[in-house]
TrEMBL record:
Signal peptide: none annotated. Its main location: cytoplasm. The keyword NAD applies. GO terms for biological process: 'de novo' pyridoxal 5'-phosphate biosynthetic process; pyridoxine biosynthetic process. Its EC number is 1.1.1.290. The keyword Oxidoreductase applies. This is Erythronate-4-phosphate dehydrogenase. Residues 291-362 form the Erythronate-4-phosphate dehydrogenase dimerisation domain. Catalyzes the oxidation of erythronate-4-phosphate to 3-hydroxy-2-oxo-4-phosphonooxybutanoate. It catalyses: 4-phospho-D-erythronate + NAD(+) = (R)-3-hydroxy-2-oxo-4-phosphooxybutanoate + NADH + H(+). Residues 108-256 form the D-isomer specific 2-hydroxyacid dehydrogenase NAD-binding domain. Homodimer. The active site is at R208, E237, H254. The gene is pdxB.
Amino acid sequence: MRIVADENIPLIEEFFGDHGEIVRLPGRQMCREQLMQADVLLVRSVTRVNADLLAGTRVKFVGTATIGVDHVDVDWLREQGIGFASAPGSNAESVVDYVLSGLLLMSEQDGETLNSRTVGIVGAGNVGSRLQARLEALDMPCLICDPPRAEAEGREDFVDLDTLIERADVICLHTPLIQSGDHATHHLLNAERIDALRPDQILISAGRGECVDTSALRRRLETRRDLRVILDVWEQEPDIDEALCRLVDIATPHVAGYSLDGKMLGTDMIHEAMSRHFGLPARKRLGQLKPDSWLRRITLTGWAPPLEALTLCARACYDIRRDALLLERYRRHYGMAEGFDRMRKEYPPRREFSTLRVSLKHNAGDLRDTIVSAGFSLRLAGKQG
């Protein structure tokens, strides 16, 4: 069996090496000629998987180690009898960590507590629902907009997008890209809605770049620098709008879901799916292959201020400012498009909040609740483990 895989997918050799020959390729540069003799194709979000890529090849299974599938022509694969699997939820915790890091940064800049702002979450799927759970556990009020789910489930507690924009202090976009239909998300945040954003609102986009009209956003920021914006996803990646990149508060190259833990889980999920498709034994387990985190524990006293302690623990795992500075360095050295992709390829290992164990005294009270609610593991003093 010949397995062609995106070079940025971790643990490919460890999971798939027993099944045949592995060929690693840059995901954005894959072409049909390279896949003529392939049996399996494993990609991430930068590879467009469709008839142009696969027609005439012998590929029988495609796996994408990502939550989203808008880069895959799933209907065409089904028509051709080609097996397909994605990795729903694999990097959801990583994206939530990214958003929390951004919210903590904004709170620190403004000298405000986390729960002083209402967060509007657009899209209540794997990422949005987990973000809501963590924020509400931290006593942060949330508004949820997800028209397909509201319609399917009769959710009267959801709000429409314009109501969310009017009432929320922070707007977080976590929708898939849907080009047409009643619930299309392409340019969901269009010029009219961008113009309606209030001064000092915070916009965080970590879903799909095309859900925001980035030209309209650039025009708003060029004329009125009264919004705070964190953008991880962009239109026309990797050749993104460099002027917009310089105008936003935090710019990162589609790495919100790039934790090592999330990427490894995605590999595990598509390995299991491929094994089922071909009737092969799935002998490898992620627990056997996952490396230890180099930072395993932080010890806090019971009188540590909860918000300061939370900020310390979050930045020990992941500081969103590091990625913004890293993108700027890559841009200076290689130009925007090449730097965007090169940073993703060379992205340093990043672990999720759950990999950090926080040791507290038994009487930590509010601090204990804050640490657990934010997603960290907890070890009470005197307890083993």
